[in-house]
Amino acid sequence: MKPEIKSALMGVTTATLTTVLLKKGVRFCYVNGARPIVPGNFTRIVGPAFTLRFTPTREDLATVDSWSSPRSTRAAIEDMPEGCVAIADAMGLTTAGIFGDILCARMRVKGVAGLVTDGMVRDGQGVIGTGLPVFCQGYVAPASVAALNFVGWQETIGCGGVTVVPGDIVVADGDGAVVIPQAMLEAVTEAAVEQERLEGWIMKEVNKGLALPGLYPANAEHKARYEADKAAGRA
Amino acid sequence: MKPEIKSALMGVTTATLTTVLLKKGVRFCYVNGARPIVPGNFTRIVGPAFTLRFTPTREDLATVDSWSSPRSTRAAIEDMPEGCVAIADAMGLTTAGIFGDILCARMRVKGVAGLVTDGMVRDGQGVIGTGLPVFCQGYVAPASVAALNFVGWQETIGCGGVTVVPGDIVVADGDGAVVIPQAMLEAVTEAAVEQERLEGWIMKEVNKGLALPGLYPANAEHKARYEADKAAGRA
Amino acid sequence: MKPEIKSALMGVTTATLTTVLLKKGVRFCYVNGARPIVPGNFTRIVGPAFTLRFTPTREDLATVDSWSSPRSTRAAIEDMPEGCVAIADAMGLTTAGIFGDILCARMRVKGVAGLVTDGMVRDGQGVIGTGLPVFCQGYVAPASVAALNFVGWQETIGCGGVTVVPGDIVVADGDGAVVIPQAMLEAVTEAAVEQERLEGWIMKEVNKGLALPGLYPANAEHKARYEADKAAGRA
Amino acid sequence: MKPEIKSALMGVTTATLTTVLLKKGVRFCYVNGARPIVPGNFTRIVGPAFTLRFTPTREDLATVDSWSSPRSTRAAIEDMPEGCVAIADAMGLTTAGIFGDILCARMRVKGVAGLVTDGMVRDGQGVIGTGLPVFCQGYVAPASVAALNFVGWQETIGCGGVTVVPGDIVVADGDGAVVIPQAMLEAVTEAAVEQERLEGWIMKEVNKGLALPGLYPANAEHKARYEADKAAGRA
Amino acid sequence: MKPEIKSALMGVTTATLTTVLLKKGVRFCYVNGARPIVPGNFTRIVGPAFTLRFTPTREDLATVDSWSSPRSTRAAIEDMPEGCVAIADAMGLTTAGIFGDILCARMRVKGVAGLVTDGMVRDGQGVIGTGLPVFCQGYVAPASVAALNFVGWQETIGCGGVTVVPGDIVVADGDGAVVIPQAMLEAVTEAAVEQERLEGWIMKEVNKGLALPGLYPANAEHKARYEADKAAGRA
Amino acid sequence: MKPEIKSALMGVTTATLTTVLLKKGVRFCYVNGARPIVPGNFTRIVGPAFTLRFTPTREDLATVDSWSSPRSTRAAIEDMPEGCVAIADAMGLTTAGIFGDILCARMRVKGVAGLVTDGMVRDGQGVIGTGLPVFCQGYVAPASVAALNFVGWQETIGCGGVTVVPGDIVVADGDGAVVIPQAMLEAVTEAAVEQERLEGWIMKEVNKGLALPGLYPANAEHKARYEADKAAGRA
């Protein structure tokens, strides 16, 4: 993705992105259940989606030996480009962790921007220790094969109620993760940057004591004041 | 699949199959939520799995126009061979039906053995009217695109907690649907047929008034009696 | 509501209505959990919504004495006009029944078209015996006050994931219940009647053996054939 | 239990029992999830509770061999007295059936009044075929050991949100199952019989066209009319 | 509310309040799901309930334009008196936030004591930054209109399984939020203050090494000791 | 338990234990829902299980008076040996806390190693203040009797999807709690210690920049290197 787009999105909250996407007709863009692994961490990540797909475990398929097969999570990780956001469909399961500290450490070494899943990771302390930004439902002890079977990567997936196509843009912060369809990236970014600026100005007005009706959303009078402030470099 | 295997499995309950699979090390073989569309219908279907995969709806992808695309449920249905069991990963969603009466009518015309899903169908009366055996969570009014996005067919899927690989064997009856890994088909069928025979004999003994301990599971004495009855054509 | 609208809607499935509403921009119109009290009953009801609202039980409010108060379910029922569809927000609770046989019998006597709820009724045999069409999650033994507190009637409510404003139109059949916003009634009815006619024609084509691509949705060629058949009174 | 109590309770709905128990201070008496195995069957059973307890499966405990142990479901069944209602804590799990057709057939032969569980049974067709009244969440294929470990019998259990002490009275019908604490049995039965009588009289009044306020609950005037009718043998 | 009542309740845990309310016959007083927005924050708030009600989103009602209507969340906030606790029925939905940082900032400016909801807020970092005490299920990115439709304020609502009447008293702390029916306020406060004092004394005894039986609950001997200590100013 | 086993397990993560148990055939060993009461606390506890069992509340059984009975949680606590891990089956309920600060303080005084439950505790601030390590779903205000009835102790229980037999070994840390069947204790401990050592070595290799395939799981070449490093005291 273009550096200026990435840089612009680093300054936009996922809350703003969902509002902009809703106005542009996309309601299903928010990944339910993907929370920062350290609660209250508001760091943001931005990057193109690298998808991973799991199905339920099956004793003849999801064996410990499968970890050595060419179609394994290990092989998928080696295929991840620098700067991507790995996003994994774990069917929302909370009974096993998709990755532990070793896999996350390797992703960190490779420069992966972060990991997003509607499921869990495992070995929470170790994963946090790698410094890889992870957005998930939490961490549990059981290994992936206890509940999950790895199928493949870079396929269209569902994750937390959102369809993700490889190459869509993922933005995640303290409020969770949002998927921007690739074709809408520039329009969404532009509108979001402006929305952030406007809301920052409104917030200041509220803190001055202004009442909400007419201000948020802004009516003609307040909009004019905002435009004036913007022109004068005050918003 | 071989006709004699199919014919043997038509005489075996899914209850027996899960027990046989568990003894052979496969616990994750039962499709949660797939019930006969007419409650209390105990008709059985058997056939190789033809898989379908859905992800969550997304306004730019799951459009009414997408129904005309080459990668549509319509195209998938035209690709189904006679005798297969269509099995669809609908992520267990109950808020939209994957297929309605027209699609089911086409499947019926093409000789599809049945439809299994962890989700819903729609236009229940119409679907039942086609005569296609359907195993699902029920029927609702909303169309698939209200909640689902069709991705493709003949991929490995998860359905109701089971991983299904195209070509696995699906057996469904009043107790639900079971997936037999292709490589285990003959061994499972043989063991299941014998298990049914033994349980039929035990049931007669119970109805004669015998107590359960020692009989079910059968101890050496009862096993000998069963073998004798079997040899004599009485079991 | 106009008799010709009601009569037209009596011939349209809820499945068709959800498709028409989705095309007109309303996705949230289907009442999750409201099923015919007798499974497999496909009788349809149509009528303006008469809303009822419950909150959770509270020992000082939801007393047996509250049944005699002026703000009781009893008073609400006496206020129901003939032909309305009573629709009750029970917060989807399955642990108590909102109404039993006596209240349903009174509704039946008053000519209420039916009862729709996202919760339960109680005394299933008695309620079925009254002949009142009821759409609910099922029936349980406990009385409303065991889990619910009645608040009032003819307010805006949520029911099974849909907002219902008094005077919206409710249509319910074997596939569940759909809410049509009052302002869209005529446009939705007109489009739905045409959609039913077209789908009836397509179903006949499928039963003749036609493949789905191009037929459903119909391409220009098939559309022309349909229009010709319609003009000739054959669709 | 005394035959006259049993006979009286055979004429009382579980709906009435929950109302009577609530008035006497017991709100937690209804077994969530226990439905007649054949939907719409309104046959009633009454009997003292014979409890069974399951915990989650564990591979070293819930083996197929465990079915032959002295602490098995088989041994428990042999211990059941005629006329009891077997009630099993299956933790509400829907992924395995606690009993199949052979165990239910043995219970039927022994004169057990019925089986109540917050979980599932298996081999639905076979279980229905035994004629044993069963109240459960439904039937699935997997055997108990796939998800459950049998612990013992005649202990205090929880079942569907109700604590059941061996010897409590279980009444089950189309609306589900209710547990009457043993010490309250006579008082509850007496009040319930009277309540049924009164509600039968009110139902007739409603069918004559009377309005609900004042009638249900009955005010002084209506109560006097009821008492007069009762004295005259008309209620 | 009287300042001395408020001040007394500021010294009482919600845990103690639920016990006192249970003893006085009110079991349904605890708001499920309302947690401090910063986990582990044990700050307490007390104030009269100012209620807000949401229903599910509907595209023709819950528009971005609706934010400017006279019946909007903005108008409701302007109507909130200083010291009230805003409590919002969001139907327990976790897919959209009812309020973001701007609305919470305005509430803070107006002197609202806090916000309680069974749902979510959005823009977690911004909301926490306002300093308004918030009790909710967490924070997500999507705006209210993605899932919710605002109906009105100062109506009776259900929130997290509790019915709240405007004017009831809400107390919230690290253990969640409790609703005290207005009529019971003084009696509950008095009993709760005494209960806290007694439990503080018991805690000291436990830390001295005393065993629990006889001490908690206190038998006659321990009660006498407590009364003596209280009289002597040691409890 | 032997001090050297306890000491060895204090150095092993629950993540490693679940992998070792899975390889030895035990999949059902992880307690769903038991999390450190202070999120992000990674302290570990190890000890033999002392079990507690709850069923749903019932007004005639779960009274405040029951707290003084010989079969009370108080009596159970007095029976707990030093070093045990109390593990309570609360049926996963989140609507009441099993223990508050006073009971936890007593457990702390008695030297109990920690408390594990699939439910909740209450008075979170007070419980945390006692210093007792607690693993639970969280803390809420309501007392146990609001939702739970205490049955007894040192029985076989289910907790968070695991069967626990008194004397099994419980290990809990930031990833949750694992139950080791008593008979497998030594074999599991030995394998786990070796697994931790190997994974520590692999982690270092990953941090040096090695790719995952062949390394994790280790192929023959890497295994030889590990063994050499181990022999040389470098792993």
Automatic annotation (TrEMBL), chains A, B, C, D, E, F:
Spans traversing the lipid bilayer: none
Keyword Cell division found: no
Higher taxonomy: Bacteria, Pseudomonadati, Pseudomonadota, Alphaproteobacteria, Acetobacterales
Keywords: Magnesium, Metal-binding
The keyword Metal-binding belongs to this UniProt entry's keyword annotation: yes
Cofactor: Mg(2+)
Top-level division of the source organism's lineage: Bacteria
Protein name, per record: Ribonuclease activity regulator RraA
Species of provenance: Falsiroseomonas bella
Gene Ontology terms for molecular function: metal ion binding
SUPFAM superfamilies listed in its UniProt record: RraA-like
Binding-site residues for substrate, renumbered to this chain: G100, D101, I102, L103, R122, D123
